[in-house]
Design brief:
about 10% helix; about 90 residues; alpha+beta; two-stranded antiparallel ribbon
Length: about 90
């Protein structure tokens, strides 16, 4: 993972996820038309990782604040939440 003031890039063997601020999207980008779309309501992006404890530790070591601590949910999944700059749960 890499992070700067404009966003963060998560990379695994099978996934690349870029989170960036809305104003970083150029006018000719495919997503430029969504700038005025309503965001953050009812959206949660779930990314399954083989070792959630290790991933959580890496996030913590990078100084990224998690919205919730790592915990085992009632349905059996261990998870934690992050929030991107637009308010989406990750």
């Amino acid at each position: 993972m890499s992070q700067n003031e404009n966003g963060a890039l998560f990379k695994t063997e099978n996934l690349h996820l870029l989170l960036t601020k809305e104003d970083e999207i150029s006018d000719n980008h495919d997503f430029s038309g969504i700038r005025t779309a309503r965001k953050e309501t009812g959206v949660e992006i779930i990314s399954a990782v083989p070792d959630v404890q290790n991933f959580y530790q890496r996030i913590w070591e990078m100084g990224i604040d998690a919205e919730s601590k790592r915990k085992r949910q009632g349905w059996g999944m261990t998870d934690f939440r992050l929030i991107d700059p637009d308010g989406y749960f990750l």
